[in-house]
Design brief:
The protein is mainly beta. Helices cover 10% and strands 29% of the residues.
């Protein structure tokens, strides 16, 4: 379980992404209990992963169970051309949203949870994928797309979206 931010790529590759400029109303101020709840997002190690991420980036701030996060529903990533895949499909939409309850007496019928899988670039070495198009990548399930609360004292660019992956 880790927190992943957009990472540096080799100079020959560029990666761009699009994400909502504002968080959807129903995904603002989500408490940690809702994020780790097995009936909801089920991101059991979320708080520990955020703590580890902050420590890795030099922040002494300790996240607490009463903290609230703003979540995103999806991120659209523009991929570099990958010969082994296609020159045409260069957009990848990754969804990570909790279930949203229906509102009785309205047209809102609720939404199912979405937790897409994605290939994540890591520094891990895997002898099976060395020398292949999958070298340096691993499959992960994206559980939460979020931004850090503004009151977190982070010495790095905390405005970028983060992903909690398993």
């Amino acid at each position: 379980m880790t927190i992943s931010a957009p990472t540096a790529l080799p100079a020959t590759l560029t990666l761009t992404y699009k994400i909502a400029q504002t968080h959807p109303t129903e995904l603002r101020n989500i408490d940690v209990a809702s994020i780790i709840n097995p009936a909801g997002i089920n991101a059991q190690q979320f708080l520990l992963a955020v703590k580890a991420y902050l420590q890795q980036h030099g922040s002494s701030f300790v996240p607490q169970s009463f903290d609230r996060f703003a979540l995103f529903k999806r991120i659209t990533i523009t991929l570099p051309p990958i010969l082994q895949v296609s020159k045409l499909k260069l957009r990848n939409v990754v969804r990570a949203s909790p279930p949203i309850a229906a509102v009785p007496g309205t047209r809102n019928h609720g939404e199912h949870a979405y937790h897409d899988f994605a290939l994540i670039r890591t520094g891990e070495r895997n002898a099976v994928t060395d020398g292949t198009a999958l070298e340096g990548l691993r499959v992960a399930q994206v559980r939460v797309l979020f931004s850090l609360p503004s009151y977190y004292s982070a010495p790095f660019n905390a405005a970028k979206p983060l992903a909690y992956i398993e």
